[in-house]
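Ticket #357: bound-state structure for manganese (II) ion.
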Amino acid sequence: MALDKSILEHYMKLDQRDSVQVMYIWIDGTGEYLRSKTKTLNFEPKSPSDCPVWNFDGSSTGQSSGDNSDVYLHPVALFNDPFRGGKNKLLLCETYASNHTPTRSNKRHSCVAVMKEAREAHPWFGIEQEYILLDADGQVLGWPKGGFPAPQGPYYCSVGTGRVFGRDVAEAHYRACLYAGLDIAGTNAEVMPGQWEFQIGPCEGVEMGDQLWVARYLLNRVAEDFAVIVTLDPKPKPGDWNGSGAHCNFSTKAMREDGGIEHIRTAIKKMSKCHVEHIKVYDPKGGKDNERRLTGLHETASIHDFSFGVAHRGASIRIPRQVDEDGKGYFEDRRPASNCDPYEVTERLVKTIVLNQ
Ligand code: ADP
Ligand code: MN
Ligand code: MN
Ligand code: MN
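RESOLUTION: The complex was predicted; output attached.
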């Protein structure tokens, strides 16, 4: 049931006096889904450390048992709240168990340590987040009830009724990201009808994970307003329909400087030697989700093989044409699934390429 959103407008215009609403956001026990709850502060926080550590009932989020249920929320990144506006904030948090160790789905904790060790290399990331919209019944947005749309071909970057579905969601999300202060690089309609992409980056170090998780939070909140569902399942429709990825573009300072292509080639050689280790952390199920997506068809490489190529969209790693021409820049790792944890993906890349671990 969709509530009439216009009724809310009256209440949102009421003066909130000197209070600031801070939406604490965290990744739940699945490692895939987000949760959030609000705290009132009597001042406007300027940085995450201005915000108090808080807690929640981890037994309701798959993060603790009922007899020892409190899980701590440690504030780590602060953004403007595009839904409540004004001084109100979104606050991304890490989760810690009662003994103050990171919870199982807190992948940020180790990512921070790795990024710290590699900071001299100035690792930059840009992630392309693909997603598919479903209507409230779980049908892909724009697909005929009980049937299929015309085959893929006209939908990527398309315009026009019958070709593009759910543009309002992508538009609202784009503006919400800008308002929040995220480095959203762009957006486009994707190959499968009802599928979209947005890109976050370039971001340095752990900020990649922080920004992408908050962008996912915004997308889910915007989708609520349109009564549609966002799915990050990497292959919701088997058959001749594209799946969803989270291509991770990567560079170090050395790769971005003249002659950097040599550093890119060295990085690819290192990655070719630990394909399996990467695949293990490129979806939340140790590779099981990506098995359905990385088939070697639909602009993917087989999950079993490592490959690379210039401008090659059927390879694990693509060197963009422009990068090859310039002799410097970045490469694209096409393997991460749409529902990957960006903290795990970026940590793995830096371990392999910068730290030789
Ligand atoms: P594609 O051609 O694969 O669809 P996109 O334009 O969707 O590529 O995304 C490219 C991504 O690469 C963006 O997120 C952008 O921020 C990122 N990017 C650009 N330059 C760099 C760089 N030097 N290092 C890392 N990421 C980069
Ligand atoms: Mn793209
Ligand atoms: Mn894409
Ligand atoms: Mn791409």
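RESOLUTION NOTES: The mean pLDDT is 97.
TICKET STATUS: resolved
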